[in-house]
Structures are given as structure tokens and as C-alpha cells.
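Q: I have 318 residues here and want to know how they pack in 3D. Can you give me a structure?
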Amino acid sequence: MTLVEPAVSIRGAIEVPGVKGICQRGVLLGAVADGETEIRGFGRAADTQSAIDVVRQLGVEVTDVGDEVVRVHGVGLRGLRSSPEPLDCGNAGTVMRLAAGLLAGQSGTFTLVGDESLSSRPQERIAVPLRALGATVETTDGHAPLTISGGSLQPIRHELPVASAQVKSAVILAGLYTASGPTEVIEPAVTRDHTERMLTAMGVRVAREPGKVSVWPAERLRPLSIDVPGDISSAAPFIAAATLLTDSELHIRGVNVNATRTGFLDVLERMGGRVAVYNRRSLGGEPVADLEVRHAELIATNVDAQEVPLLVDELPLF
């Protein structure tokens, strides 16, 4: 039997694993870049491994260089190959939906599958706009398995019925393959913008304004060389613990402080939390900083429904 004694305080410095969504996007977009993409600080998890597995099935070479470095040997924007077997996305909704956007512009037919949990999630939310763009998309009673046949794509203006970074990303990735532009996505609430930032770094014309993202077709994507910052979701339990335990002082190095991800810090500040954000810098187009967390006496506060996507990773329903 192992006994765990209650902690009196937390003091010291830590780093947390890289942002899962950035790792997945780096693999997927690196697969269709011209040349080698290197992703450092790669967060190892089942969902990020699913991204690697899927692009390998599509004919892309991915090399593991140590525990935290991955190199993706891109095959070009239209170079993905059909797989004789279904593309297994595991439990990774980000992989399934973003891959669907990329596959809408490829030649051939592709089938995406997932585990029981992922297969219960709604996929007509991406199927509808991808069909409007010109792809042939079949779902199974609105869910995965999802079969996509690429076509001649035309730009659309799509209003999201539910705020979703995954659906938004699927549409703008398909927009890369249209005959003209722009492809526009209107969102009812702010969602994470990792895809837009990464596409901009790869040379794509992207326009962002409140409530709307526009993307223009591309001939090629520049390969990436990125350091993935620490995930605020992974840091959150440590931030909460240091806030609650008396005499705590915790430093968390290299955390992603993208404004679409830091709702937890905003709410904690309103409750009286003491989190100092310092040493701000940019890594791969993403804002990064170090955090200093000290004990604080918290007070109750209200959370608006619009803040929920900024407080947690994208919910399964979305």
C-alpha cells in the first residue's frame, strides 16, 4: 500500500507537456508542407500519436527524434495518398475533423474511423460545409465512420451553428484547395486560433477579425520549425494547488498564454488569485510566458457561458 500525505505547500519550478492541439496541427499541416517540419517539445499522448498514425497511413514519413522531437517529411499540399485501410483517429476529434478538411482537397476516397467515444460525436457539422465546398462526404447516421471523396472546391461563407475550433479549422483547411477565395467562417463565440496562426506561419493568406476568419487558396505551404509551448490545461491543476495551499510559490516555465486558452487565469484573477505572467515572448507564432503562482484566499465569482470554451479543452459535443 502506498500512502500519500497531504501537501502543506507547493514551492519550486516545473514545466508542463506541450499543447496537444498545436502538436496535432503541426503533424497534419507538416504532412502537406513542401519539405521537412520539425516539432520540438512534442507532447506525447494517445491523441498526438493518432495524428502521426493517420499521416503515416496517408504516405507521409514521420521520424521520432528522441522523446520530444518529431520530424514530418511533407509530401506537398496535394500529395496525400489513399489508404487501403480506414484512417484510425482513435479518440482524437481534432485529428478526425482537421484531416477531413485536408482530405476534401485530395484526389481519391478516404474513410476516417475512431473509437467508440469518437464515433458517438456529431460529424454532420463538418460534413455540411465540406459538401457545400464541393467534396463528397458520407457519414454513418451523422457520425463516424466518415467517407470523403475530394472534388473541385469552391469558396463558401459558413456560419457555425455552435462555436467549435475543430469545425472552423476543417472549413478553412478545405479552403486552401478552392479555385478562388476567400473561404469565410463566421463564429458565434471566440474559439482557439492555433490553426490560423500556424497557417500564417506557413505562408497562407489569412485574415482575422472579430467573429470571422477568412482564408485564401494556397499553392504550397512552407515547412515549420516550431517549439511547442506548455499546455495551460496541463498547468491548471498545479496553478489551482499552489493557489489553495498556504505559503506556496510555484513557477511554471514556458506556458502558452494564447488569449483563446487563458479563460481559467482570467476567472482565477477575478476570484482573487495571485498569478503573475512574466517573461512574455513568442514561439512559433504563439504567445508564451512564465507564470508565478502564490497562495491566495479566493472569493466566489460567476462564469459567463461565453467563457466556457476558453476555460476547458473543446468539449466532446463540439
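Q: Anything worth noting?
A: The mean pLDDT is 93. The longest helix spans residues 232-244.
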